[in-house]
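Problem: given the chain below (169 residues), write out its structure.
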Amino acid sequence: MADQRLPTVNSDDGVWGDELNNFLGKEHYNADTNYTSTSKNGGHKTITIQPGTATAGTAPLKFTAGTLLTTAEAGAVEFNADKLYVTTSTPTRKTLASYDDTSGATGDMYYRDVSGNFIRLPLGSSGQSLVVNSGIPSWQTTFSGMTKLSVGTTAPTSPATGDLWVDTT
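Solution.
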């Protein structure tokens, strides 16, 4: 700033006001050139989230669980119970899919249960085939009442490892 002193109330209206408005115009989003309207985003042009540390309580971004909006709003991020949601531009609320499973292994599969949660299905053993019964996948060696899903073939007399079967009863 050109002046090296603090402003005096009611006597520095022109110079200090211009300097302050110039600073705000560079660092903040202005709804209009007169600085009279409420600015978006808390007045900031951009938000930079600083990194956290390994210490508890220093996460750079935290959500508090609350009630979801009655009507989905495009661009909204919401947290309710154990689910995080992002709303698309249509607007359609989408649940961010996640799983917390450190016991998984190579070859394991995950499927969505009726509540929208991911469930881990460990890799089957030799001689087992994947069977879907009432929408729930499992590994089995017996296939009574099942039909093999395969292009151009019928159900074999003995299953092969990796076959996919569905309950047709």
